[in-house]
């Protein structure tokens, strides 16, 4: 009898454990105003991050969110089961690498350069022979390279900014709002500015293809819900 009870308890515990979905790993980068942190990544917030938190809360999906470099965030989601990433631009090269849950933000791709060039440089065709700094793995770099423009890849936008100021680079390609934030943070508004934008993009919550279809469906439903009930618009208004 004791043996039967123990076997029954073991089966019950095992069945309960198997019924609990594994926690998703949600990766992102420090990219104001979409995803930010003031405590080393323990608390992550922003225009996109707040929406992702709300989607997962309403979906009742266990998760943890990790802030890291964009290249690592992207590669983890691309190669590791049970992992998703935001805010990812949906490009042709990336299309088959992820299951695309939905849009959590929108932004503009921009070329940044010396304030002396404001009004003088306004399209990619004018910088065909330039050296353009880009962040590794950033879709802005992919787009610029597709136009036949030479890109110089960096692991740190701060290094790109430094090289731009020193004349080692001619321009910098980045998301417009993020670039403006970094320029202001470094007190460089008198030296650097967004010269023009060359496209817009929806930024997605995207998951490794191994993430279960049921979880993808839940997240899509809750994303639709926060758009319909005004929660998403309220989050956008905060930032």
- The topology string of helices and strands comes to HEHEHEEEHEHEHEHH
- Under CATH, the topology of the largest domain can be stated as D-Maltodextrin-Binding Protein, domain 2
Largest sheet: 8 strands, mixed
**Class of the largest domain in CATH?**
Alpha Beta
| Beginning-to-end CA distance, first to last residue | 63 Å
**What would you call the shape?**
elongated
**What's the count of strands?**
8
Query: Low-confidence parts lasting 5 or more residues at pLDDT below 50?
Result: 1-19
Output the CATH homologous superfamily of the largest domain: Periplasmic binding protein-like II
Classification by helices and strands: alpha/beta
Give the overall average pLDDT. Answer: 91
CATH architecture title of the largest domain: 3-Layer(aba) Sandwich
Question: How many structural domains does the protein architecture include?
Answer: 2
Radius of gyration: 21 Å
Strand content is 25-35%
Count of separate DSSP helical elements: 8
Q: What percent of residues adopt helix (DSSP H or I)?
A: 25-40%
């Amino acid at each position: 009898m004791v043996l039967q009870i123990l076997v029954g308890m073991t089966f019950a515990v095992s069945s309960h454990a198997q019924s609990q979905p594994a926690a998703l790993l949600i990766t992102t980068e420090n990219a104001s105003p979409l995803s930010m942190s003031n405590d080393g990544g323990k608390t992550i917030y922003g225009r996109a991050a707040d929406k992702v938190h709300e989607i997962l809360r309403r979906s009742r999906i266990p998760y943890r969110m990790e802030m890291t470099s964009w290249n690592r965030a992207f590669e983890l989601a691309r190669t590791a089961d049970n992992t998703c990433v935001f805010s990812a631009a949906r490009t042709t090269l990336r299309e088959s690498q992820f299951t695309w849950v939905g849009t959590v933000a929108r932004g503009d791709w921009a070329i940044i350069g010396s304030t002396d060039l404001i009004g003088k440089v306004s399209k990619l065709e004018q910088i065909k022979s330039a050296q353009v700094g880009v962040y590794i793995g950033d879709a802005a770099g992919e787009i610029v390279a597709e136009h036949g423009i030479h890109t110089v890849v960096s692991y740190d936008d701060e290094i790109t900014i430094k090289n731009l100021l020193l004349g080692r680079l001619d321009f910098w390609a980045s998301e417009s709002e993020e670039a403006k934030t970094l320029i202001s943070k470094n007190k460089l508004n008198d030296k650097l500015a967004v010269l023009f934008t060359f496209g817009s993009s929806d930024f997605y919550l995207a998951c490794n293809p191994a993430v279960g279809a049921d979880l993808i469906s839940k997240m899509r439903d809750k994303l639709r819900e926060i758009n319909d009930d005004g929660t998403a618009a309220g989050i956008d208004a905060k930032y």
